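Let's study a protein:

___
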Amino acid sequence: MSRVRVAMVQTNSVVGDLEGNVERIRRVLDEVADCDLAVFPEMTVAGYPLEDLVLKPGFVADCRTAVEAVAEASGRCALIVGFADSAPEGGDTTGVQNAVAVCQEGRVAGVYHKRVLPNYDVFDEARHFVPGREPLQLFEIAGVRVGIVVCEDLWVADGPVDRLVAGGAELLVAVNGSPFHRGKLDEREAVVAATATSSGLPVVYVNLVGGQDELVFDGGSMVADTAGRIIARAPRFDEAVVIVDVDVDPVPSSATDLVTVPVSDPVTRSDHAVPPPLAQLDPSAELYEALVTATRDYVVKSGFTDICLGLSGGIDSALVATIAADALGPERVHAILMPSRYSSDHSISDAEDLVANLGLDGRTIPIEDAHFALRNLLTPSMGDDPPGSTDENLQARIRGVLLMAHANAFGWLVLTTGNKSESAVGYSTLYGDTAGAFAVIKDVYKLTVYELARWRNDQAGGPVIPSHTISKPPSAELRPGQRDDQSLPSYEVLDPLLEAYIEGDRTRADLVADGFDGDMVDRIVRLVDLAEYKRRQTPPGIRVSRKGFGRDRRLPIVNRYRG
């Protein structure tokens, strides 16, 4: 039996920051120097996903230069790093490829190109990359034949894994950029364990960490032994270096029919690296950490330091403010209270209490004068009583103007506070409460908002979100006595219906068969479909479900199909 010392290196790469990403790799080289192999995530050097950056030839060339810089800094420990690469010259493929390089002792020992390109959910790699087609090869690292795959390669039957195993691999390494959604870790672990048991080989699985636009990567790297047991884990949502000794059963060289690239010789060690066990996050904890991580990275990676948001005293803005404070520090969160004639006393006091509890910068700007002035401007055209929701939307848009004014004046980034239930049915005001740069809870249903608020209040330091904010009936407070349930079914009914329709792709007949009232189904489905034009004009937000609005679910704005 051989033993390989492996470092799982979870990095938080920044898309396009080639120099910075190379420096992030360099910073851990001393820590992994005694290892045989250090595995970094998919697209470590370039960041991920790249989208149309790969259409810039200069970018792809610069990626290769950055990999060469990594190679120059490498020592005895072999580094597996991801990057964007041009298809090999002289082959039958042209275009850009999702690649990993094996770097050791100042050289690039070899390159593997991803073969299976996902084109579903949030992935559109078939638009940007061409699959690898060159002959597979193994890399002999510390005397062990290592087969390397990239993310989707691991998930398909009859893919490169089978050929690597049949060709004599003794250890499988998978580099990944697998974004978070609720339940995704269990899916990954099942695939890794099944691959280990079916192949009879240990599997090293290393995943990206950090936020990128609408996606958040949660790390959770792992090693599975040949029995499918997870013997080492990396933290969730944090950069980390986890070092583990992996026992490898030899495969006779006579069983090897793939080219094997020599990289490094075995090393005899007297110690044994066994990382400590990690406690698993409960569902609320992992969701909250996903939102915190994504918010922090969107703000910081975009070059901002501070954010502002409208704080109404309601549950949505309270949760977003709390997430922002945990992500950035309370001193960088500026809460703007904008009461109107319809704001209840308790909403104002709830907002003030949250500001005090979190230590935020709180500012109060009543909107009554602006509301009165705009009503007067509209009177000649609309009369004293503007039709429909005009007056309600005026108030929301005044608040949007005030928030954007603070963003302009102080260089702050505006966070919006709408949830998925509202976004689904269009219960929002364009250019009002949707005005901003980033929608923190865009993919979080209303009931889950309450769940997260209660969870956060149970953590160390005591409750921060006022209990009344959680217990009172939800209301936009844009007219006297307004409550959400006057316009919508209760969220206990609405949220399961929305989840079934949006994420489960259930038809009207399916939903009725599931027990939902037919008239209600018709009404809610119609609202969801009609609101597509609104959602296309709202800021990006964190995708945490199996199907979020935006990258996952894109329907025609003009659409007359009903079914």
Summary: Residues 390-410 form the longest helix (21 residues). The chain is about 35% helix and 20% strand.
